[in-house]
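Attaching the record inline, Q. Sequence:
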Amino acid sequence: MADKQTPDIVYTKVDEAPELASASLLPIIRAFAAPAGVTIGTRDISLAGRIIATFPEYLTEEQRQEDDLAALGELVKTPEANVIKLPNISASEPQLVAAVKELQAQGYALPDYPYEPATDEEKAVRAKYDTIKGSAVNPVLREGNSDRRAAAAVKKYAQNNPHRMGEWTADSKTTVSAMSSGDFFSNEKSTTLAEAATAKIVLETAEGETVLKEAVSYPAGTVVDATFMSAAALDAFLAEQIEETKKAGTLFSLHMKATMMKVSDPIIFGHAVKEWLKPVFEKYGDKMKELGVNPNGGLGALLERVKDEPEILAAIEEVRETRPPMYMVNSDKGITNLHVPSDVIIDASMPALIRDGGKGWGPDNAQHDTNCVIPDSSYAPVYDATIEYFKANGKLDPATAGTVQNIGLMAQKAEEYGSHPTTFEIPAAGTVKMILEDGTVLHSHSVEKGDIWRSASARKAPIEDWVNLAIERQAETGYRAIFWLDEARAHDAELISFVKPILEAKGVADKFEIMAPREATVASLETITKGENTIAITGNVLRDYLTDLFPILELATSAKMLSIVKLMQGGGLFETGAGGSAPKHVQQLMEENHLRWDSLGEFCALGESFKFLGNAKGNAKAKVLGEAVDAATQGILDNGRSPSRKVGEPDNRDSHYWFARYWAEALAAQSDDADLAGHFAPIAAQLAEKEAEITGELAAAQGQAVDLGGYYHGDFDKTAAVMRPSATLNTILG
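Structure, as predicted:
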């Protein structure tokens, strides 16, 4: 259970690979923090934990959990906040349902997930489950803007040990395809509110007015956007791309973010599933609906629903033979791009494909050129420009490349990632209006049935904080600094009206450039190709996309990024880098007892958290711990102690042993705190002396399947036994 008093540092309990790693790393952190008087607590923001906290009325007293996410949401609004946030599952519908079924099997009497709620009770249950889907965590915790960059030690290591990059050729057929009209970009409207206001969102049809959302409140200075994607235009675009892919002889791939954009993107994904199987839906649509098929859940769930319908299965196979080959998530297991909406996440899938020379894995388990379908054109130009740049110039050289840092606007649910409560699939043709209390129509769109309409906003205080954070970062580094804003886009034009006056008032307008994303991408690639550095100052979505794209090109992974959120009320949120929660790593652990998750992101965040505690809160011992963490992290890199991918070789647990050893050695060697040096000197000596025993015990644990007691909701004792198999190491740490 989570600690209930506010500790000095809160370490989040999450899911999958990073949570398994925590079972090994967190006891080490606590053992090192205690002699400095630093308390380490936990809060459960895992998918299972959030499900349990949402339905206390269905559970026994012993099963209930506090709402730790809500508690953390309050903590990050205070100067006392010091939170280390690991990657958690941003649940798609299939993941949510799987977690619920696992908890039910463990004796939690949770209600089933209502796919098509009919009664008021089912609608209430569905509404609660929907609050858990998608990126329900990050918007709550991110009460500050983002400062993401490669830690100096990590970047230096990547340059000295460059990873393999796929070859790019000028005749590559890999391309990015996006809508040219009818999408969110082309339909966007935006305005900045001069005064605080409350709006309602209504749909006016021939039959009357339907209120889609009541009482949406905005403080003065808020940028309020509204837009929609035409369902007809989307379907026509998808049909065209399927045919174009077939003509080109490439793989068809759809790249979405159904986790973060948890309302709009699953709908778009469902359109792709329906278009891919259009003849099947035309002939058997009513029957499939009876069977509970929801295309938004993906091809995998669809196939499960029709598995006992040979006629439908035959029709699906017949259509498949007429389609181009599809980009595969797992070709060995037949898992396609369209199987699960959360399996192909654009900010991870596109950079990996680009790193591999534009190649994606096909159903024949070989790599091929790919049509990367990104329906909305708001951010597709970033990937298009990157691909065209490498076609013309060849692959990036990690040994000489500079770096792209990022300052990202994300505080207080900024921009599209805060749009879930105000996104709607339109039930009938009409006009959607945002109407203020005084009757003023803020935004209006004519829509058709099935269109996807959404509104998003960005508040004045976060915008100003974002610009000032960019000014600080540029002054500290002297790097080329670019605001990635398109004056031809409605929302970006409003942001530019904030940015320019602040830069001019601070006398630094000459140190910044403003470019549309396509041009900014090319400028940034040109800069890092020359070995120079740049700062990308972006909105929320580009923050997310770029802090995968450039790290994957520069470092091979985004999991090793330094990710600092300077909370607006003075606290600190230290994210352990991007990279997702790595379900494949969990599968390998369960089958082979080998965890290849690299905790370097956790090490980087930990050092920053301790140093923040030292500098901002006056805890000198914590600062010493933090500086020693940096030395230990450098030791991991310099000595090649990161995990191997193969069973029988050192894994995550071995890297934690070496981290503890290097950390203890650094503390023993430092002269700023004699008490800490004296405490850790014998520990460092024991860790060195017992190296053979410890590494032998860790190696002996590998090779056999293990039982964690659950995937989403594992058993604490079973997981600890798996992740802490060295009795010698455990004894030394106490």
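The longest helix spans residues 620-638. The chain has 27 helices and 24 strands.

More tomorrow.
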